[in-house]
Write a structure and sequence with these properties.
mainly alpha, Growth Hormone, Chain: A, 2 domains, two-stranded antiparallel ribbon, 14 helices, globular, transmembrane transporter activity
Length: about 425
């Protein structure tokens, strides 16, 4: 595998504070994202209720979940090209504005009693698509907001608060929906996006100028997609970590497909206690964000990623041996810590080695591939659970992680600095 040589984009830089917490531009992005992420849980909890009230169908509810996943698979590469082509701040503002418009339209249709299942599918699909445009843009602008040494801290901060919101959000949303209907809940979600729009508008981003094409002409969307693939496949670090992401997503989904069933059917865990046990994964995720930056002193990041894979293998082994809910929680804690730890360093490596004018395409392509691997793993895990004892799926996942670690070492992942 050889490294591809790509001309770096010219960045008209702005002053970058030495401290992450004195970086006003990052704080604008972080605060706005926290508000929108927290209030968005009201929408994600209310949407199944909307579908249920309109259809009373499990198929309709599960189809909505599929519609929310499709944009990542269908438009991953295209969104990456768009993010790299246009002014990212304006693109982020446009994405948030369109999300607000969609939520307002949804509120109006529900209030007027004109909402149809297919309309909610379409609106939900568009909402997820524009949300992905914003998240891809966020990944691409982080290197523009700070010095290189702050990338790990920034990604750890984003992951930490994302985990906190994922834990607190459903509880807060559920409490609010007890005292109001989901139509009014949509207005709170809209308020969160308005706050995100305001803080995004306050950000000052340096302008990234693409290097001119060798032919001196404007490249097509297809050519820019091809450039993204070329960058991904011919850059050793990107290719190696992309293979790692595919493998980890597949194995994690393979085992994750049966965790709830195992807890309820084999450990006879009460459904009321299930959420508490599953939250151990989120707790492990939060804890790993505190060691992400100090871990850079432990060795090369490639070695850290191999260590995270081996830690995931240990977590799956603990699940295999679990005969009590406390042991199950320990295993989930280990898995959550390993997953977030590796994600932080993978995002940082991608941001460091990818020219910024191509970061949207590279992120979009890897996201698309990762989204494809997850449902395959979920399906195969569910099928295997029908024919073998469920806890052997965890043992299989542990062996898969060990094999993935060996393959990663063969591909010299440990040499990535």
């Amino acid at each position: 595998m050889r490294s591809v040589s790509t001309p770096l984009a010219q960045v008209n830089s702005v002053a970058k504070p030495k401290s992450l917490w004195r970086n006003r531009q990052f704080l604008y992005l972080w605060v706005g994202s926290c508000f929108s992420g927290l209030t968005f849980h009201i929408y994600t909890l209310g949407l199944p209720l909307m579908i249920y009230d309109l259809s009373r169908s499990t198929l309709a509810m599960s189809s909505m979940a599929v519609m929310n996943m499709l944009p990542y698979v269908l438009f991953g590469m295209l969104v990456g090209v768009i993010v790299d082509r246009f002014d990212r701040k304006r693109l982020m503002l446009a994405a948030v504005a369109l999300q607000i418009a969609i939520l307002l339209l949804m509120f109006g249709l529900l209030t007027a009693g004109l909402a149809k299942i297919w309309v909610l599918y379409l609106l939900g699909f568009c909402l997820t698509t524009f949300g992905y445009v914003f998240s891809n843009s966020t990944t691409s602008i982080v290197p523009l907001l700070m010095e290189r040494e702050h990338y790990v801290s920034a990604n750890a901060t984003i992951n930490f608060w994302g985990t906190v919101i994922s834990m607190a959000g459903p509880s807060i949303a559920g409490s609010l929906l007890l005292v109001m209907n989901y139509r009014l809940g949509l207005l709170i979600t809209i308020g969160g996006f308005l706050i995100l729009f305001m803080f995004t508008s306050l950000m000052k981003l340096p302008k990234v100028e693409k290097p001119p094409s060798p032919e001196g002409r404007k490249t097509s969307i297809r050519e820019e997609m091809r450039e993204g693939w070329k960058q991904l496949l011919l850059t050793k670090e990107l290719f190696t970590i992309t293979l790692l992401v595919l493998g980890v997503n597949f194995v994690s989904s393979f085992a994750g497909a049966v965790i709830v069933f195992y807890a309820l059917d084999k450990l006879h865990l009460a459904s009321s206690s299930l959420g508490l046990v599953l939250s151990a994964s989120a707790l492990g995720s939060m804890c790993s964000t505190f060691v992400a930056k100090p871990s850079l002193k432990w060795g090369r990041r490639g070695k850290l990623l191999i260590g995270a894979i081996l830690t995931a293998a240990l977590g799956q082994s603990v699940l295999f041996l679990s005969a009590h809910w406390l042991i199950l929680a320990v295993g989930l804690f280990i898995l959550g810590a390993a997953s977030t730890f590796s994600n932080i360093h993978i995002h940082t490596i991608r941001q460091e080695v990818t020219p910024n004018h191509m970061l949207g395409r590279v992120s979009g392509t890897t996201s698309m591939l990762a989204r494809i691997a997850a449902p395959i793993g979920l399906f195969l895990g569910g099928v295997c659970g029908e024919y073998i004892e469920v806890h052997f799926i965890f043992l299989t996942a542990s062996l898969m992680f060990l094999m993935l670690a060996l393959l990663s070492m063969k591909n010299k992942l440990q040499e990535i600095s």
